[in-house]
Amino acid sequence: MPGENDEVIVTNHPSEEYYGIKDKGRNTCQQVSERHGQLMMPLRLLTQVLTSGVIKKMKVLVTGAAGLYGVHLVETLVKNEDIARVYGVDNFSRPFLTEDPFFPAPEMAAKFVLRRCRYQDLTAAELDELELDAIIHLAAYVSIDESMVVPAVYFWNNEYGTFKFVHTLGQTKSKPLLLCASSPEVYGNPRYLPMDEEHPLYPRSVYAVSKLAAEKHANALHEWFAYPVIVIRNFNTYGENQNLAGYAAVIPRFIVNALQGQPLVVHNDGSQTRDFLYIGDAVRAYVMILQERERLQGEVFNIGTGKQTAIRELAQLIKDLTASTSPITPARGRPGDLQGLAADITKIQNAVGWSPCFSLEEGLNRTIEWYRRYI
Predict the structure, then answer these.
(1) Of 104, 103, 46, 1, which Cα lies nearest the Cα of 281?
(2) Can you name the CATH fold of 14-372?
(3) Tens digit of pLDDT for each residue in 116-159?
(4) pLDDT (tens digit, 9 = 90+) per residue, 218-277?
(5) If I label 160, which of 210, 220, 292, 317 is the partner at 20 to 30 A Cα–Cα?
(6) How far apart are CA 326 and CA 373, in angstroms?
(7) Distance (Å, rounded) from C-alpha 189 to C-alpha 62?
(8) Cα dihedral 314/315/317/320 (nearest 10)
């Protein structure tokens, strides 16, 4: 239980909730919550523990700052007293459910600077002027289906955009770390499960190809010029403020349909599996990798739970959690759909001691509560 000097505040807004931490010696993935009745570490204490003496007074730029990963990372970084400044870049190409996608926090006004532009249009001089220590490159179009409808858009934004951006970074004087977000879609259909970082790479969509190419462009800069690069392959991440525009991801689509009493459509028999990771755990992985950036340059890491959930099971779980009467309806599957995904996270566990804390049900409950307020 919390000590007498511990501060315990329970709220429903993501910007005031708590993220758990698991250290190398023992499980401290704990949270205080009226809903779950568990012990949890306050976010401000978490960021102090994760970053104490390591990323002191860092200046960090986040591309794709208004996306799912971006808004949660920005929130975490600005609340850290050892982060001097957080710069965000986003062209706001997608609409949001809220007028302002960023979570309100008093630190935002003092420490966060947002620039509305395409990340690939930044110049080396502009980047040097910011005196950056690290760049977290999240900006990308992320729909598999959409990438097969408008493939050139995905090529120009995800692959060529990253190609241009990394070579701009190569021209900088400051040489900030590039922490590059990628996807398990680069693996293609599983040869084995769970997939480790050495799994063969057989991407099956333009999106997947564009993400693998982006990785390789960044890695080429590292191999030839020793530019500091780390790649993180994010398995199927979900959470508050995930985009619903266009080809929405399966979890926000199921949640919204369930709340509105609309059918939850599963492809074929819904037996295909995914590894669903809550955004709070994902953000913690990024912070911990950033903490150890000097010794991890050139590495690739998976982040996920290692647990497979069938899509039909996900649909039923969301129905149950929302008390929805929506039917679960089968539909013809996509030709290039993957039969399964599950992350082998041994490498990141050994490197920094990260493991996920949130169960799927816990993460979904938090996410559902957020969507209830805006749907």
Answers:
(1) 46
(2) Rossmann fold (3.40.50)
(3) 999 999 999 999 999 999 999 999 999 999 999 999 999 999 99
(4) 999 999 999 999 999 999 999 999 988 878 899 999 999 999 999 999 999 999 999 999
(5) 292
(6) 19
(7) 31
(8) 170
